[in-house]
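In this supplementary section we document a worked example of the pipeline. Step one takes a protein sequence of length 299 as its only input; no multiple sequence alignment statistics are reported here. Step two produces a three-dimensional model, which step three serialises into C-alpha coordinates for compact storage. The input and output of this example are shown verbatim.
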Amino acid sequence: MDLFDSMRIFVRVVERGSFSAVARELNMGQPAISKQVSALEQYLGGPVFARSTRHLALTDQGQRFYRHCQEILGQLESATRSFASGQEQIAGPLRVAAPVSYGRLCIAPLIGTFLQRYPDVRIDLRLNDHNEDLLMEDIDVAIRIGVVKNEGLVAVPLGNTLRQVYASPAYLERHGLPLEPGELANHNCIGFTLLEHYDRWRFTRRSDAFDIAITGNVTSNSSEAIREMVLCGLGISLSPQWLFKADVERGSVLSVLEDYKATALPVSAVFSRERRHSARAMAFIDFLREHLHGLAQEP
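The serialised model returned by step three reads:
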Protein backbone atom coordinates (compact mmCIF):
# COMPACT_ATOMS: atom_id res chain seq x y z
CA MET A 1 0.00 0.00 0.00
CA ASP A 2 1.24 3.46 -0.96
CA LEU A 3 0.23 5.53 2.07
CA PHE A 4 0.06 8.86 0.21
CA ASP A 5 -2.08 7.37 -2.58
CA SER A 6 -4.43 5.84 -0.02
CA MET A 7 -4.68 9.15 1.82
CA ARG A 8 -5.49 10.98 -1.43
CA ILE A 9 -8.20 8.46 -2.29
CA PHE A 10 -9.62 8.65 1.25
CA VAL A 11 -9.81 12.45 1.05
CA ARG A 12 -11.57 12.30 -2.34
CA VAL A 13 -14.09 9.75 -1.04
CA VAL A 14 -14.93 12.08 1.85
CA GLU A 15 -15.25 15.09 -0.46
CA ARG A 16 -17.27 13.31 -3.16
CA GLY A 17 -19.40 11.37 -0.67
CA SER A 18 -19.21 7.97 -2.35
CA PHE A 19 -16.78 5.28 -3.48
CA SER A 20 -18.38 5.02 -6.92
CA ALA A 21 -17.96 8.75 -7.68
CA VAL A 22 -14.22 8.57 -6.92
CA ALA A 23 -13.91 5.37 -8.96
CA ARG A 24 -15.37 7.17 -11.98
CA GLU A 25 -13.20 10.23 -11.37
CA LEU A 26 -9.98 8.18 -11.20
CA ASN A 27 -11.06 5.69 -13.89
CA MET A 28 -10.75 2.80 -11.44
CA GLY A 29 -13.13 0.07 -10.37
CA GLN A 30 -15.11 0.64 -7.20
CA PRO A 31 -13.65 -2.53 -5.60
CA ALA A 32 -10.17 -1.03 -6.07
CA ILE A 33 -11.22 2.14 -4.23
CA SER A 34 -12.79 0.11 -1.42
CA LYS A 35 -9.64 -2.00 -1.19
CA GLN A 36 -7.48 1.12 -0.80
CA VAL A 37 -9.67 2.45 2.01
CA SER A 38 -9.79 -0.96 3.72
CA ALA A 39 -6.00 -1.21 3.53
CA LEU A 40 -5.76 2.26 5.05
CA GLU A 41 -8.08 1.25 7.89
CA GLN A 42 -6.02 -1.87 8.51
CA TYR A 43 -2.87 0.26 8.60
CA LEU A 44 -4.52 2.68 11.07
CA GLY A 45 -6.01 -0.07 13.19
CA GLY A 46 -9.62 1.14 13.08
CA PRO A 47 -12.48 2.27 10.80
CA VAL A 48 -12.61 5.71 9.21
CA PHE A 49 -16.21 5.33 8.00
CA ALA A 50 -19.27 4.35 10.03
CA ARG A 51 -20.57 1.60 7.79
CA SER A 52 -23.65 0.91 9.92
CA THR A 53 -25.35 4.00 8.43
CA ARG A 54 -27.14 4.20 5.10
CA HIS A 55 -25.05 7.19 4.07
CA LEU A 56 -21.29 7.53 4.06
CA ALA A 57 -20.30 9.13 7.37
CA LEU A 58 -16.94 9.54 9.06
CA THR A 59 -16.24 8.13 12.50
CA ASP A 60 -14.84 10.62 15.02
CA GLN A 61 -11.37 9.16 14.43
CA GLY A 62 -11.97 9.32 10.69
CA GLN A 63 -12.92 13.01 10.92
CA ARG A 64 -9.68 13.81 12.76
CA PHE A 65 -7.63 11.73 10.32
CA TYR A 66 -9.32 13.49 7.37
CA ARG A 67 -8.23 16.90 8.69
CA HIS A 68 -4.67 15.67 9.17
CA CYS A 69 -4.65 14.19 5.64
CA GLN A 70 -5.72 17.54 4.19
CA GLU A 71 -2.89 19.26 6.04
CA ILE A 72 -0.23 16.71 5.08
CA LEU A 73 -1.23 16.50 1.42
CA GLY A 74 -1.46 20.29 1.22
CA GLN A 75 2.05 20.66 2.61
CA LEU A 76 3.34 18.08 0.12
CA GLU A 77 1.71 19.99 -2.75
CA SER A 78 3.13 23.25 -1.43
CA ALA A 79 6.64 21.80 -1.20
CA THR A 80 6.38 20.46 -4.74
CA ARG A 81 5.22 23.81 -6.10
CA SER A 82 7.94 25.64 -4.18
CA PHE A 83 10.61 23.45 -5.76
CA ALA A 84 9.10 23.85 -9.24
CA SER A 85 8.69 27.63 -9.08
CA GLY A 86 12.32 28.18 -8.11
CA GLN A 87 13.32 31.81 -7.95
CA GLU A 88 10.59 33.26 -10.20
CA GLN A 89 9.75 36.80 -9.14
CA ILE A 90 6.44 37.18 -7.30
CA ALA A 91 5.05 40.26 -9.05
CA GLY A 92 2.39 41.38 -11.48
CA PRO A 93 -1.41 41.15 -11.72
CA LEU A 94 -3.30 38.43 -9.84
CA ARG A 95 -6.98 37.86 -10.59
CA VAL A 96 -8.78 36.09 -7.72
CA ALA A 97 -12.41 34.90 -7.75
CA ALA A 98 -14.39 33.96 -4.64
CA PRO A 99 -18.00 33.54 -3.44
CA VAL A 100 -19.48 36.86 -2.35
CA SER A 101 -19.85 36.33 1.41
CA TYR A 102 -16.69 34.25 1.82
CA GLY A 103 -14.72 36.73 -0.23
CA ARG A 104 -16.03 39.68 1.78
CA LEU A 105 -15.62 38.14 5.22
CA CYS A 106 -12.66 35.79 4.86
CA ILE A 107 -10.54 36.77 1.83
CA ALA A 108 -10.75 40.57 1.61
CA PRO A 109 -9.45 41.13 5.20
CA LEU A 110 -6.29 39.16 4.29
CA ILE A 111 -5.41 41.04 1.11
CA GLY A 112 -3.52 43.82 2.89
CA THR A 113 -1.28 41.34 4.73
CA PHE A 114 -0.53 39.49 1.49
CA LEU A 115 0.41 42.72 -0.30
CA GLN A 116 2.69 43.73 2.57
CA ARG A 117 4.55 40.49 1.98
CA TYR A 118 4.49 40.79 -1.82
CA PRO A 119 4.25 44.53 -2.61
CA ASP A 120 4.82 44.05 -6.36
CA VAL A 121 1.62 42.03 -6.82
CA ARG A 122 -1.61 43.79 -7.94
CA ILE A 123 -4.79 41.94 -6.95
CA ASP A 124 -8.14 42.08 -8.74
CA LEU A 125 -10.64 40.42 -6.35
CA ARG A 126 -13.85 39.34 -8.11
CA LEU A 127 -16.80 38.21 -5.99
CA ASN A 128 -19.50 36.06 -7.55
CA ASP A 129 -21.56 33.21 -6.09
CA HIS A 130 -21.56 31.40 -9.45
CA ASN A 131 -18.44 29.53 -10.49
CA GLU A 132 -16.70 31.55 -13.17
CA ASP A 133 -14.96 29.97 -16.15
CA LEU A 134 -11.32 30.45 -15.18
CA LEU A 135 -10.02 30.41 -18.73
CA MET A 136 -12.75 32.61 -20.23
CA GLU A 137 -12.49 35.15 -17.41
CA ASP A 138 -8.68 34.91 -17.16
CA ILE A 139 -8.83 34.02 -13.45
CA ASP A 140 -5.56 33.03 -11.78
CA VAL A 141 -7.01 31.53 -8.58
CA ALA A 142 -10.61 30.80 -7.60
CA ILE A 143 -11.90 29.86 -4.16
CA ARG A 144 -14.54 27.14 -4.23
CA ILE A 145 -16.69 25.90 -1.35
CA GLY A 146 -17.94 22.35 -1.77
CA VAL A 147 -16.78 19.51 -3.98
CA VAL A 148 -14.73 20.58 -7.01
CA LYS A 149 -16.06 18.54 -9.90
CA ASN A 150 -14.27 20.10 -12.85
CA GLU A 151 -11.52 17.60 -13.57
CA GLY A 152 -9.75 20.11 -15.82
CA LEU A 153 -8.83 22.21 -12.78
CA VAL A 154 -6.16 21.67 -10.14
CA ALA A 155 -7.65 21.89 -6.63
CA VAL A 156 -5.60 22.59 -3.49
CA PRO A 157 -7.48 21.99 -0.21
CA LEU A 158 -7.56 24.95 2.17
CA GLY A 159 -9.50 23.17 4.91
CA ASN A 160 -13.17 22.85 5.82
CA THR A 161 -15.85 25.41 6.40
CA LEU A 162 -17.81 24.35 9.47
CA ARG A 163 -21.58 24.85 9.43
CA GLN A 164 -24.25 25.34 12.06
CA VAL A 165 -28.01 25.79 12.17
CA TYR A 166 -29.02 29.40 12.83
CA ALA A 167 -32.27 31.23 13.59
CA SER A 168 -33.27 34.59 15.04
CA PRO A 169 -34.68 34.82 18.59
CA ALA A 170 -37.96 36.13 17.16
CA TYR A 171 -38.32 33.10 14.87
CA LEU A 172 -37.59 30.64 17.69
CA GLU A 173 -40.06 32.43 19.97
CA ARG A 174 -42.80 31.91 17.39
CA HIS A 175 -41.94 28.39 16.24
CA GLY A 176 -40.04 26.80 19.12
CA LEU A 177 -36.46 25.56 19.49
CA PRO A 178 -35.61 22.30 17.67
CA LEU A 179 -33.79 19.95 20.03
CA GLU A 180 -32.86 17.24 17.52
CA PRO A 181 -32.44 17.17 13.71
CA GLY A 182 -35.73 15.35 13.11
CA GLU A 183 -37.64 18.33 14.49
CA LEU A 184 -36.43 20.46 11.56
CA ALA A 185 -39.33 18.97 9.58
CA ASN A 186 -41.59 21.31 11.57
CA HIS A 187 -39.62 24.42 10.63
CA ASN A 188 -39.32 26.77 7.67
CA CYS A 189 -35.85 25.83 6.44
CA ILE A 190 -34.11 28.10 3.93
CA GLY A 191 -32.10 26.15 1.34
CA PHE A 192 -28.92 27.41 -0.36
CA THR A 193 -29.44 26.22 -3.93
CA LEU A 194 -25.83 26.40 -5.09
CA LEU A 195 -25.10 23.28 -3.04
CA GLU A 196 -25.76 19.99 -4.82
CA HIS A 197 -27.98 18.54 -2.06
CA TYR A 198 -29.34 21.78 -0.63
CA ASP A 199 -32.63 20.14 0.39
CA ARG A 200 -30.98 17.54 2.64
CA TRP A 201 -29.15 18.51 5.82
CA ARG A 202 -26.82 15.92 7.30
CA PHE A 203 -25.61 15.71 10.89
CA THR A 204 -23.62 13.34 13.09
CA ARG A 205 -23.60 12.84 16.83
CA ARG A 206 -21.02 10.39 18.11
CA SER A 207 -21.55 7.29 15.92
CA ASP A 208 -25.07 8.27 14.78
CA ALA A 209 -25.83 9.92 11.45
CA PHE A 210 -28.93 11.93 10.54
CA ASP A 211 -30.08 12.72 6.99
CA ILE A 212 -32.94 15.24 7.09
CA ALA A 213 -35.09 16.27 4.12
CA ILE A 214 -35.84 19.93 4.76
CA THR A 215 -38.81 21.96 3.53
CA GLY A 216 -39.56 25.66 3.42
CA ASN A 217 -41.23 28.38 1.40
CA VAL A 218 -38.05 30.08 0.19
CA THR A 219 -34.66 29.14 -1.24
CA SER A 220 -31.84 31.32 -2.53
CA ASN A 221 -28.59 31.13 -4.46
CA SER A 222 -27.16 33.94 -2.30
CA SER A 223 -25.78 33.41 1.19
CA GLU A 224 -26.06 37.16 1.76
CA ALA A 225 -29.80 36.98 1.06
CA ILE A 226 -30.19 33.95 3.34
CA ARG A 227 -28.47 35.83 6.16
CA GLU A 228 -30.88 38.76 5.76
CA MET A 229 -33.89 36.43 5.76
CA VAL A 230 -32.69 34.69 8.93
CA LEU A 231 -32.13 38.07 10.61
CA CYS A 232 -35.67 39.08 9.64
CA GLY A 233 -37.08 35.97 11.31
CA LEU A 234 -38.31 34.32 8.09
CA GLY A 235 -36.77 30.92 8.73
CA ILE A 236 -33.91 28.73 9.87
CA SER A 237 -30.73 28.01 7.91
CA LEU A 238 -27.76 25.67 7.83
CA SER A 239 -24.91 28.05 7.08
CA PRO A 240 -21.15 28.48 7.48
CA GLN A 241 -20.09 29.69 10.91
CA TRP A 242 -18.22 32.66 9.45
CA LEU A 243 -21.43 33.98 7.85
CA PHE A 244 -23.19 34.49 11.20
CA LYS A 245 -20.21 34.92 13.54
CA ALA A 246 -20.77 38.66 14.15
CA ASP A 247 -24.55 38.20 14.43
CA VAL A 248 -24.16 35.49 17.07
CA GLU A 249 -21.79 37.71 19.04
CA ARG A 250 -24.38 40.53 18.94
CA GLY A 251 -27.19 38.15 19.93
CA SER A 252 -29.27 38.89 16.83
CA VAL A 253 -28.98 35.25 15.76
CA LEU A 254 -28.79 32.07 17.85
CA SER A 255 -26.89 28.87 17.13
CA VAL A 256 -29.18 25.82 17.19
CA LEU A 257 -28.57 22.05 17.55
CA GLU A 258 -25.07 22.60 18.89
CA ASP A 259 -24.82 18.98 20.11
CA TYR A 260 -24.94 17.83 16.48
CA LYS A 261 -22.21 18.27 13.88
CA ALA A 262 -23.38 19.31 10.43
CA THR A 263 -21.44 18.01 7.47
CA ALA A 264 -18.56 20.40 6.81
CA LEU A 265 -17.86 21.69 3.31
CA PRO A 266 -14.37 21.52 1.80
CA VAL A 267 -12.76 24.82 0.83
CA SER A 268 -10.36 24.69 -2.13
CA ALA A 269 -8.21 27.01 -4.18
CA VAL A 270 -8.50 26.02 -7.82
CA PHE A 271 -6.56 27.04 -10.88
CA SER A 272 -6.14 25.90 -14.45
CA ARG A 273 -3.16 23.73 -15.32
CA GLU A 274 -1.78 26.63 -17.34
CA ARG A 275 -1.28 28.55 -14.05
CA ARG A 276 0.61 25.70 -12.38
CA HIS A 277 3.96 27.45 -12.62
CA SER A 278 2.75 30.96 -11.78
CA ALA A 279 4.79 32.02 -8.76
CA ARG A 280 2.32 34.72 -7.67
CA ALA A 281 -0.67 32.34 -7.90
CA MET A 282 1.16 29.68 -5.91
CA ALA A 283 2.34 32.23 -3.36
CA PHE A 284 -1.24 33.40 -2.86
CA ILE A 285 -2.49 29.82 -2.39
CA ASP A 286 0.23 29.08 0.16
CA PHE A 287 -0.64 32.33 1.94
CA LEU A 288 -4.30 31.30 2.15
CA ARG A 289 -3.38 27.89 3.53
CA GLU A 290 -1.35 29.60 6.21
CA HIS A 291 -4.00 32.15 7.23
CA LEU A 292 -7.24 30.24 6.68
CA HIS A 293 -6.20 27.15 8.65
CA GLY A 294 -7.52 28.40 11.97
CA LEU A 295 -10.67 29.87 10.39
CA ALA A 296 -11.68 26.97 8.17
CA GLN A 297 -10.86 23.99 10.33
CA GLU A 298 -12.10 22.76 13.64
CA PRO A 299 -9.44 23.28 16.36
